[in-house]
Amino acid sequence: MYTQLQQRGMAEPPVNIATLRSMKGKAEPIACLTAYDASYAMLIDSVGTDLVLVGDSLGMVIQGHDTTVPVTVDDIIYHTRNVARGLRRAFLVADMPFMSYRNSDQALENAVALMQEGGAMMIKLEGGDSQIDIVEYLARHDIPICAHLGLKPQSVHKIGGFKVQGRDPEQAKHMIDSAKRLQNAGADIVLLECVPNEVGAAVTKSLEVPVIGIGAGPDVDGQILVLYDILDITIGRTPRFVRNFMPGHNSPGEALHAYVSAVKDRSYPAPEHCFS
Ligand code: KIV
Fold this sequence. Notes:
binds 3-methyl-2-oxobutanoic acid, 40% helix, alpha/beta, single chain, 12 helices
């Protein structure tokens, strides 16, 4: 019954939630990237990336929108299906787009679609206290969940831009408490975006589940970046936490390998990629 899963990588078994938890336990950094198609998924997988996210960032980097708001569930399913075909070892997470989890039943229906039609192994939703009931409901139905805290790009119009979150001590404390509540409700991973180093460290220390950071400093359990940012495909200004890995490398494959190595040996993120 389990042969197919076992055969996906006889030499290196596929990453699952237990692998990620054990990496946190052993303080082994988790290297994560976004992907949107099968060819890059294959390359990303081949360099030892542990987790791949089909992010709603595809609205910006693939579709050319200014925000992630226009992305639909069908868009994510389409790209997740393509990425799934390219992966052998990495753990596949798919984003729940804007307004696809307004209530528990809608969230469950869309999460099931991402898993059954897209092939995702976990869904990610941007959530704080108002999503606790939804996370609890999904967890009760055995849906693996990554909860996204800090800067939540789907709320960009509400918060007035892509800004660092949690600089104010009250807001930082609230974020740490929310992360604990999300974990207790059943979140298996917390993703933290654009927060000061101390907030990244405090959330990571207070949770048993892995914390993946993007602009959350060095003291988290893993790092994630948007694929196009590290391959220098993004035109114009990139966020402070981005590092372009193309210089000194002759191909995207070499740059991806350098990214995974830099996460594993903790040379990324450096102080210039962090917020205080
Ligand atoms: O959509 C996305 O790619 C994300 C990353 C910024 C982590 O959520």
